[in-house]
Amino acid sequence: MKSSTRALLALLVLQAVLISAAVAESNGVGASAKKACCSFCNSWSGVYTCDDLLTKCAATCQNCAAVPTDKGTRYRCRDFLPAGCPCKAN
Fold this sequence. Notes:
By secondary structure, the protein is α+β, with helices and mostly antiparallel strands. It has one helix at 2-26, and strands spanning 41-44, 47-50, 64-69, 72-77, 80-81. It folds into two domains: 1-31; 38-84, Cysteine Protease (Bromelain) Inhibitor, subunit H (Ribbon), CATH 2.10.69. The longest helix has 25 residues, at 2-26. The radius of gyration is 20 Å and the shape is elongated.
């Protein structure tokens, strides 16, 4: 009887984890939560970065750099974009 209870508990926990991951991905918390458009895109040897200056970095940005400007400090997300730069014409 205890083994079936443990198995049921394990299945419920696994189901909760899978549902949480699916909800997080659909809410933009996962890897798809990148900035939708990039105005200033750079590429070097096939690696793309978006050089847009932002008032704050997105929560998904792992490499945020502070950039001093005449309007105060702005931020630039220095993460690599493996699929190229979205919305850039060139």
